[in-house]
Structures are given as C-alpha cells and as structure tokens.
TrEMBL record:
Belongs to the aldehyde dehydrogenase family. GO terms for molecular function: betaine-aldehyde dehydrogenase (NAD+) activity. It comes from Spelaeicoccus albus. Residues 18-475 form the Aldehyde dehydrogenase domain. The active site is at E249. It holds the Pfam family Aldedh. Keywords: Oxidoreductase. This is Betaine-aldehyde dehydrogenase.
Length: 501
C-alpha cells in the first residue's frame, strides 16, 4: 500500500490532511507504514462525493446494480490473496483465518447482495379501499455514513457497504484507523468493477474527529455503526441531535449453555473454537459457558486440554491456530481482566499469563479457561474481547436459562442438548439476536445478524438489512375519478348543514 494515501474519495486514493499515526503489525510490533488521518474536511469531501453520486446510482435498475455487484465479486476474487495478506499484517490474525474465513465470507456477501438487489420489493399492490389502489415503494435513503471496528475489517466493510449500495444508496465508510487496508482494496475493486465514482468512499480517521464528523454531517441520512456499546451510545447521541436514523451493531457477551444430556466432546470442541476464534475478538464469541452440574468437571477438563493443544504463533505459518491480538495495549487490557478475576478468587485452569521470551514483541495471549468466578463479577459481565472463556455450573434448566440472560448484552448465544424440547425452549427464551443449537459461530449471508438489549438494533446481512437501508413509501391512487370523494362528506355535509340553518 502506498504510504500516506489512505482515503478513497470520488473514485480515487487521496491523502488525508490530519495528524499521522504509525500502522503496526501487532504480531511483530514492527511499523508497517504511516497513516495520515482524515480530518472533518476530508469527511466532508467524501460525503459531497457520495451525495453527487446518489442520483445516478439510485436511478439504475436493480438489474444494473446487480450486474455491477457481480463484477465487484470477480474483482475481489482476483485480489483474494492480497486481501488475506493485508488483513493478517494489520490485525495479527492467522493467515489461515484470513484466507479461509474472512476473504471467502466477504466475497460470498457480495454475491448474495448481487442477487438480492433484484429482489428489493414492497408488498403487492391492492385495493384496500374500494376507491383506491395502494402500492408500496422501497426507496434508498441517500448517503449512508458507516463506521466499522478493527476485529474483522474486511467482513465489516462488506456488511456495511453491500446492503447500502445494493439498495441504491451511496456510502462513506470509516474503518478503524488501525485496519484500513482491506476497506481501501474493496473500494478500488468497486471502481474497477465499473461502480460509479463516489458510490463507495473510505475515510480513514480516528473516532473523535472523523467518526463524529461523519455521524454529525447534515447530508448523512443514516449512521450505521458497528463497535462497542459505549461508542454506539455516543453515535446515537450525536445523530439524535439532528433526528437522524441510526443502525447499531454493538458488543456481546455470548452465553454457551450445556444441558446435562449434551455430547460433552462436541460441546468442549465448540466452546474452544467458539471462544478463541479471531483471538476471541469476535462480538459473538462464546464467553460464558454454563454447564449443568453432572457434566461440569468433564467439560472443564476437556476444554482445558483442547486449549493447551492450540498452536499460538506466527500468523503467517500454516500450522498457527491463534495469532496475536490487535495491539499490545489490547493484550494488556485482556490480561488485566484475567488478573483481576484471579485476585477476586476465580481459578485460572489454563492460560492466563502473558507469554514471555520470544513472544514479547507481539501482542500474544494464550487460550484461557476460568472457573469459580462470581456471576456478578466483571469477567462474567463485561466484554473482555480476548481468548478467555469462563465456565460456571448450574442445576436446573430454569437456572441455566436465567444465567444466560443475566448480562446487559444480547447478541448471540448457544445451547447444547440432544433433547428437541430443551433446544426449542432455549431458542425461545434466550434474549439474543442469534441462538445456535449444538454449534456456535457459523453465519450466513442469507440470515440476519444483529442484537437485542445493549447489543444494539438493526440487522446486517440478509434481505432484512434492506429494511435498515431503505424508506418504505405508501403510494395511494384514487381510482373513481369523481370530484366529490365519499370520505370528504364528513367535511362538506357538515358545512352545507350549517348553511341551511
Ligand atoms: P470501538 O467502539 O472502539 O470503535 C469502533 C469504531 O468507532 C472505530 O472505527 C472507531 O474509530 C470509531 N469511533 C470511536 N470513537 C468514536 C466516536 N466518538 N464517534 C464515532 N466513531 C467513533 O470498537 P472497536 O474496539 O474497534 O471494536 C470492538 C467492539 O466492536 C467490541 O465491542 C465488539 O463487540 C464490537 N463488534 C460488534 C459487532 C456486531 O456485529 N455487533 C461486530 C464486530 C465488533
């Protein structure tokens, strides 16, 4: 990537005009390049470009937009390896993860929305009154201002950009300032695919200046935000001042409920994969395993054993299961949670120490299992966002489900059982936007993703996301052609009766 050119505005890379920020590979601690951040003026340029592009893009037929998105998928496919390398260098996640999960998942999202663009419809037209025909138009909103986090930079760019532009909107996306690389490639691929200049713009800046300028911009019709609950509330506050629409995908603290009839091996494997995927820096990661008492010891022992077998190391090595976390500062934050839990009397069954020696330059933290924590302690209640799983026992099914719902969050959850009735009950009673039964983590472009409670509202992916990125308009056509409409008699009859008196 060219040094210092990290904005993509109106169909080309441009330099920002803000302060500089070193971009660091968190697995090595070495600087990759220097970013010049976007200022509020750069954000304004990007919003203007998106506003200019809107009339052209929104008036294309769904078929034309669909064709453009199919070409975008092909462009991204041709840059798949480059995207995987950039994603790994900027996040520290394993190259295997970038190649096999992030890149193909994002391209699948483009292909889904290429198809979905042609199925954007309101309900069928009909005569709901004898004298009128009603129909529903689904219309794009205008310029969307989107803000994304650093944990899945490419997938978050796809989740934000695709439903917005498939529905005919134009977009300004602010990726995390730590991970701008793949969003910029995405925008270049859009231009190469023939998507008009200004439809997809990227501003790389920090949250305080560029992020707040984007949310507060008068020409931004909606702010679509993915990130922490605290910043999401700030976004809502700024957008609320001008009554603008928001879409919030926020933090999570997913419960993982294991009933006493479950397959312990499947549950233990699911808990390890589900808690350490992406270094645990996943909003849906399994973080709280509630295990019915008869299975607790067997489950905890097997999870600890599997965690000890996870190969942590150089993200570029094919054998690496767990790369580094996003930064040394974040690694220290994760370690702080575990240290405080230990001091409060919880047991660290495996992991729980910042590795020394050859590891010190990178932001590594090992898979960690904690037992004996109190339900109301911070390690159980707060988002750690690292490869840390807490396991706690429960007695009755009622208690297990109650504990699952006992945090402010509600993004994702899983229940492990071979009893259909227990699974169905868990799926109905757990307050979360996604409940898996006998699995944890898989997502599909066709299915909605979004939160309950403090995890936000609005859906990413799937046809449901169009509801977020469109306005629904009722068009009502009078069909009798008469000058005196029947409903007007409530007005005119009263008037003529008065005159007669
Ligand atoms: P963060 O909230 O710190 O930052 C997210 C984005 O907001 C970044 O681009 C940042 O620059 C920007 N930002 C920061 N302050 C801002 C402000 N005042 N105004 C506007 N923008 C601002 O989150 P993070 O640390 O980058 O990501 C981790 C968080 O994201 C976790 O809480 C995780 O659960 C959440 N997340 C949620 C989902 C989901 O789908 N619900 C998906 C991925 C990550």
């Amino acid at each position: 990537m060219e040094d210092t050119v990290h904005q993509y505005i109106d169909g080309r890379r441009q330099a920002g005009h803000g302060t500089t920020l070193p971009l660091v590979n968190p697995a090595t601690g070495r600087q990759l390049e220097t970013l010049v951040l976007a200022t509020a003026d750069d954000v304004d340029d990007a919003v203007r470009a998106a506003k200019r592009a809107f009339p052209v893009w929104s008036r294309l037929t769904p078929g034309e937009r669909s064709d453009a998105l199919h070409r975008l998928a092909a462009e991204l496919e041709s840059r798949a390896e480059e995207m995987a390398q950039v994603e790994t260098a900027q996040t520290g996640k394993s190259l295997r993860m970038s190649r096999e999960f992030d890149v193909p998942g994002s391209i699948d999202n483009v292909e889904f929305f290429a198809g979905a663009a042609r199925n954007l419809e309101g309900r069928a037209a009909a005569e709901y009154s004898a004298d009128h025909t009603s129909m529903v138009r689904r219309e794009p909103l205008g310029v969307i201002g989107s803000i994304a986090p650093w944990n899945y930079p490419l997938q978050m760019a796809a989740w934000k950009i695709l439903p917005a532009i498939a529905a005919g909107n134009t977009i300004v996306l602010k990726p995390s300032e730590m991970t701008p690389g793949t969003s910029l490639i995405f925008a270049e691929a859009a231009t190469a695919a023939g998507i008009p200049d200004g439809v997809v713009n990227i501003v790389t800046g920090d949250g305080k200046e560029a992020g707040e300028a984007l949310v507060g911009h008068p020409d931004v019709a909606m702010s679509s935000f993915t990130g922490s609950t605290a910043v999401g509330r700030r976004v809502m506050e700024i957008a609320g001042r001008r009554g603008a629409r928001v879409h919030l995908e926020l933090g999570g603290k997913a419960p993982f409920v294991v009933f006493d009839d479950a397959d312990v091996e499947a549950a233990a494997r699911g808990a390890v994969a589900g808690s350490i995927i992406n270094g645990g820096q996943d909003c849906t990661a399994a973080t709280r395993a509630y295990v019915q008492a008869p299975l607790f010891n067997a489950f905890a022992e097997r999870v600890a054993e599997l965690m000890r077998g996870v190969r942590m190391g150089d993200p570029l090595a094919e054998t690496t299961d767990l790369g580094s976390l996003i930064s040394a500062a974040h690694r220290d934050r994760v370690a702080g949670f575990v240290d405080r839990a230990r001091e409060a009397g919880a047991r660290v069954e495996t992991g729980g120490e910042v590795p020394a020696g050859a590891w010190v330059d990178g932001a590594f933290y090992p898979p960690t299992l904690i037992t004996g924590a109190a339900q109301d302690s911070e390690i159980v209640q707060d988002e750690v966002f690292g490869p840390v799983l807490v396991a706690l026992p429960f007695e009755s099914d009622d208690e297990g489900l109650e504990l699952a719902n006992d945090t402010p969050y509600g993004l994702a959850a899983s229940a492990w059982t071979n009893d259909l009735r227990r699974g169905l009950r868990a799926s109905a009673e757990i307050q979360a936007g996604c409940v898996w039964i006998n699995d944890h983590i898989p997502m599909l472009s066709e299915m909605p993703h979004g939160g309950y409670k403090a995890s936000g509202f609005g859906k990413d992916m799937s046809a449901y996301s169009f509801e977020e990125y469109t306005n629904v308009k009722h068009v009502m056509i009078e069909t009798t052609g008469r000058a005196d409409k029947e409903w007007q008699h409530t007005v005119f009859r009263a008037e003529s009766a008065e005159r007669r008196d």
